[in-house]
Amino acid sequence: MQKQDANLPAQQPSVLVVGAGMAGLAAAESLYSSGFKVEIVEQAAVVGGRVKSVAFHGRTIECGAQFPSTGYRHIPQLFERMGLAGSIEKASPWAAYERKGQLHKINPRRPITFMTSGLLRWNELFDLARGSISNGGAPRDRSCYAAYAPDDVEEALPWCTRKMGRGASEHLLDATIHGFYFYSLASTSRALVSALMSFRGSEALAIRGGWDSLPRAMAKTLNVRTGLCVHRLIEQAGRVKAFVDKDTIEYDWVILAVPAPAANRILVAPNALESCVLQTRYASTVHVALGMHPDWSLPKSLNGIHGILLSANEHAWGEGLVASMVVESARLSVVNAPETLTLMLTDSAARRFAENTDDYVIEEVVKWLEARWAGIGSSVVSHRVQRWNLAEPLTPVGRARNVQQYRIYLPTQRKVLLCGDYMGMPWTDGAVETGLWAADRIRMLARKGP
Hints:
By secondary structure, the chain is α/β, with parallel strands linked by helices.
């Protein structure tokens, strides 16, 4: 429901949001609820971006973003406002990591299981605990990457090794970063690990009916037009001229909520602050879903675990092919549904398979599974492949500081605002935070007036 903000100009300020992923939808919903005239345009036929749920093999599976978390700050409020809070359920608390060719079942809410499972030695667990405690400090929004700019001063691998020991860094932290985001500790800023460790005690969630029920519900409350391409944005005379397909339309403000490469093409004459963040590069992945025969039973090593996270080491279990795997029955119980296994491939594998057919990708994944659970291939009865060329923004040293500088020093007269994955943390709540930041800035400046 729209409410007119008494502090806004009498004539509703007009805002164009380019991109109907979670960042754009969050920005639009926030501004619309404050009385702004908001229009969203999206090039794709559907909303949600990388929050994509599909029906497959008797279940609803997530083909992009995987598990929301109880540690999220912003997305739970959106579920509540959209009347979808009742669809949130907890996934199995158990996950698995690999060490020396063996899977070790752990519960992140019970750190002692890191040792009792055999994943870490007792001294390695002690080093991890000591380093985690010293990683505290003033509370920050863990989904706001700019808030972690003070930590964005060195690469994660030497910092993690120094603070939390080699064992935890190699067998737990590297696999966590790689399994979730498709890059290694060696190529990552310490800022990301600092934020990720603040999720201690959080739980993985599942959405009955699919996570994309949230963006679809949000879109129904807003003016969204899909299948439209924004070619250019030019700011002149205090307004923004948007070239949308064959039309040229002027707006008071524009929020550019698309991945960095697309934003870089659309925004004419970016300033130095914008150019820094628009150079963000991405990791790729391929999501592979395998539907199993109804008579197939889970191997004992997979019972009860919602997922496996694997390190970036090409000589370890993932072999440079698999970054993570989800056991769908442990994500969400579905009566009478056969088992489904879903896998996210590594960045290097996604690039290697870019010109290969989906059938070839399936063959390679099944070979990998067969080498670990003999006979599994004959039980695969259906499959699905989803390719993500821009899966996650890379998070090298410097990105958090670039985002912070952008937020602090962007001129107040600038009418185009950037938000989206490359402006925040590489999880969905991080993208939402960037959209809310953009909305807050426009609201603040509109209230001040010219």
